[in-house]
C-alpha cells in the first residue's frame, strides 16, 4: 500500500474516531457495553482539545504524506472534503475549548440519559415482581 493511501486511510480513521467521540454515546444507548471503548475515547478527545495537545495520528499522517512526496493536503477526495473538518485553518485556542466543552456536554447528557433510563427500568422491573409471602 502506498504512503499516500495510508495517509488517506488514516484521515478517514481520524474522522471516524472524532465522530465516535462526539456521538458514540448514542450507540451506547443501544449497546451499553460499548461504553468500555467510548468513555476512554471521550476522555482522550476532551484532553486533546482542552490541553491543545496534538493527536498522535497527525504526525503519523504527515510522515506518510512526506514519504509519498507530498507537501500538504491536496489532491484526493478525502483530503479535499474531510481534512478541513478535522484540521480547520481558522482553529483557535478558544474554539478548541468550545469543542472540548461540546464533547463533554454531549456525552454527559447521553450518559445521564442512559443512567436515568437504566434506573427507571430497574424500578419498573422491581415493581413488577410479585411479593412472596412466607
From TrEMBL:
Chain segments annotated as transmembrane: 12-31, 97-116
Stored InterPro entries: DUF2784
Keyword hit for Transmembrane helix: yes
Swiss-Prot/TrEMBL keywords: Membrane, Transmembrane, Transmembrane helix
Pfam families: DUF2784
Domain of life: Bacteria
Protein name: Putative membrane protein
Provenance organism: Candidatus Accumulibacter phosphatis
Lineage, opening ranks: Bacteria, Pseudomonadati, Pseudomonadota, Betaproteobacteria, Candidatus Accumulibacter
Amino acid at each position: 500500500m502506498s504512503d499516500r493511501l495510508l495517509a488517506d486511510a488514516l484521515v478517514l480513521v481520524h474522522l471516524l474516531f472524532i465522530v465516535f467521540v462526539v456521538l458514540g454515546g448514542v450507540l451506547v444507548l443501544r449497546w451499553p457495553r460499548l461504553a468500555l471503548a467510548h468513555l476512554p475515547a471521550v476522555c482522550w478527545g476532551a484532553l486533546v482539545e482542552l490541553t491543545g495537545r496534538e493527536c498522535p495520528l497527525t504526525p503519523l499522517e504527515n510522515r506518510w504524506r512526506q514519504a509519498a512526496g507530498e507537501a500538504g493536503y491536496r489532491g484526493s477526495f478525502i483530503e479535499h472534503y474531510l481534512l478541513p473538518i478535522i484540521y480547520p485553518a481558522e482553529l483557535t485556542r478558544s474554539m478548541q475549548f468550545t469543542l472540548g466543552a461540546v464533547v463533554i456536554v454531549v456525552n454527559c447528557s447521553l450518559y445521564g440519559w442512559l443512567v436515568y433510563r437504566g434506573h427507571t427500568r430497574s424500578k419498573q422491573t422491581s415493581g413488577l415482581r410479585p411479593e412472596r409471602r412466607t
